[in-house]
Design a protein that fits this description.
Helix 14 (about 325-340) packs parallel to helix 19 (about 445-460). Strands 3-2-1-4-5-6-7 form a seven-stranded parallel sheet, with helices on both faces. Helix 15 (about 360-365) links the parallel strand 9 and strand 10. The protein is globular. By secondary structure, it is α/β, with parallel strands linked by helices. Helices cover about 45% and strands about 10% of the residues. It folds into two domains: about 5-90 and about 130-190 and about 250-290 and about 480-495, Rossmann fold (3-Layer(aba) Sandwich); about 295-480, Glycogen Phosphorylase B (Rossmann fold, 3-Layer(aba) Sandwich).
């Protein structure tokens, strides 16, 4: 397939502003700035990402004064998080817990097929949460930006559909940078219909390998999800509107079988469920993490504290906000760990509303400086994990958090709260690098289950084996190169002549 090529050595990234959807792209931008100063880097997103791109530019110039700055092109409108939050709030309104604002983790109930039966009603809105007019508005903005920048290649976020439509309709040379698990991207090209029977259905939380008794319901669930996407009233209405505006094949899904569009993957074969086929246009680069400088340079005081002893980091991502009930349960579990071990705990606690949960016992550990509770980490999470002083990473199962812990070679405790985070929890258990405590009550928690999970990973009978497997996988992951590998490939494509193919050589 022949694509329109723009100016040599000019690259345009277009992503949403959510950390989970943009971190890999921002990390790759950082590597481009530092290692490929000949490349002119442009970035288009929502205003929330301006600070992140400015920050990596400053750090890159400190390392290499010859590097260029990132040219930022602002998109006006609601980002994915804002749009999908409204969808989730609507879904949660009748399921909200009594303690404070709605808990969006309850939007679909527990993992399993009851969750899928609820989820299928909302899937079209979750994949494309913008209304048709907003989509058209962003599409128009992005077409103008692409025309003005005229990049050699556009680097895309696989979930930001206005950008996918713009790049496709303008027939621009493009690369997709994918942060998600490989089986989710490549299941449709696996032999013998493996997408239906081999891999756990989306939102099911089923174990891998699937027990024979779960295969029939898994096949049904996958087909039901596919049917819902094909027949989604919201998607059909949006496609009809956008078609009248002249967009060709609007909301056309990315297909892993389309070999004309290279995919750079954060995930590696060793980090997930086994695959029989990885097409040549899919390049596994390894975890692409934002690690602009050592933790000691970003927050010297915190780095010094972490270095005093083994530290458990509890960081449930940028989206998770605790209500009083969840925060109280987590604090109870933390206190149990502090009573039974000599470790330190660093807990990122972002509250839904104002409340206090600090008990006398917790105050004792805070005064001893063994427990720190913060609402923001000045240090990049990956930089903190890579200090060698963190002994366990507790997170929500987001792909970035999962791969950051893998890169650092750390055991993981995963507490998934949403349908799209169950996979990482099951992959960690399958690989023997982590655990998912409380599967039977998820997404709810109780203090006993959490504390038992923490103690199991720290001092349990399998803790040493988990540590060894996590460390070994970390060594493998680091050999892939991550954002440096992705940046090198993007720079090569950007430097090629206009008549070059869109395939990596």
């Amino acid at each position: 397939m022949s694509f329109k090529h723009g100016k040599r050595n000019v690259v345009l990234f277009i992503t949403d502003s959510a950390n989970g959807l943009s971190n890999a792209h921002v990390a790759t931008c950082s590597s481009l700035l530092e290692n490929h100063p000949e490349v002119e880097v442009h970035y288009s997103s929502f205003p929330k990402l301006i600070a992140a791109t400015s920050r990596i530019t400053a750090y890159a110039r400190a390392k290499n004064p010859e590097c260029q700055m990132i040219h930022f092109h602002e998109i006006t409108g609601d980002d994915y998080k804002t749009s999908v939050s409204q969808v989730l709030t609507n879904a949660t309104s009748s399921k909200a817990v009594s303690d404070g604002p709605p808990d969006v983790s309850l939007a679909w109930g527990p993992p399993g097929h009851s969750a899928i039966r609820s989820l299928v009603q909302d899937l079209g809105l979750l994949l494309v949460p913008w209304d048709a007019a907003s989509h058209w508005n962003m599409f128009s903005q992005l077409c103008t930006i692409i025309e003005e920048v005229d990049p050699a290649v556009v680097i895309l976020d696989p979930l930001f559909h206005p950008a996918l439509d713009a790049a496709r309709n303008m027939n621009r040379r493009r690369i997709v940078l994918n942060p998600n698990a490989l089986h989710g991207v490549l299941s449709d090209v696996q032999p013998r219909g493996a997408a239906l029977w081999k891999y756990p259905a989306f939102a099911s939380g089923s174990p891998f390998p699937l027990p024979w008794k779960l295969i029939p319901s898994n096949v049904y669930s996958q087909l039901r999800l596919l049917f819902d996407l094909v027949t989604s009233p919201s998607l059909r209405a949006k496609r009809a509107y956008l078609s009248t505006k002249g967009i060709k094949s609007p909301l056309h899904p990315l297909r892993s079988g389309d070999t004309s569009i290279p995919i750079l993957s954060m995930a590696i074969p060793e980090s997930g469920f086994p695959l029989d086929v990885i097409p040549p246009h899919v390049v596994c680069c390894g975890p692409m993490v934002i690690d602009v400088a050592p933790a000691s340079s970003q927050d010297a005081e915190l780095a010094t504290w972490v270095s005093k002893g083994r530290t458990m980091l509890i960081n449930l991502g940028s989206v998770t906000k605790y209500n009083r009930q969840r925060a109280h349960i987590m604090l109870q579990a933390i206190v149990t760990v502090l009573q039974k071990t000599d470790i330190q705990v660093l807990w990122k606690l972002v509250k839904l509303d104002e409340f206090s949960i600090i008990s006398k016992v917790a105050t004792q550990y805070i005064e001893q400086d063994r427990l720190r509770i913060v609402d923001w980490l000045k240090t990049d999470p990956a930089s903190l994990l890579l200090t060698g002083d963190i002994c366990v990473s507790v997170h929500h199962g987001g792909a970035n958090s999962y791969l950051e812990a893998i890169l650092a070679g750390l055991p993981q405790v995963i507490l998934p709260l949403w349908a799209d985070t169950y996979d990482c929890a099951q992959m960690a258990e399958h690989l023997g690098i982590g655990i998912w405590p409380g599967q039977n009550i998820a997404p709810l928690w109780d203090a006993e289950t959490l504390s038992q999970g923490f103690m199991e990973i720290l001092t349990g009978t399998k803790s040493l084996l988990i540590q060894k497997k996590a460390a070994a996988l970390g060594e493998v992951a680091r050999r892939y190169g991550g954002s440096k590998t992705a940046a090198t490939m993007i720079a090569k494509v950007a430097s090629e002549d206009r008549d070059a193919s869109n395939k990596f050589k």
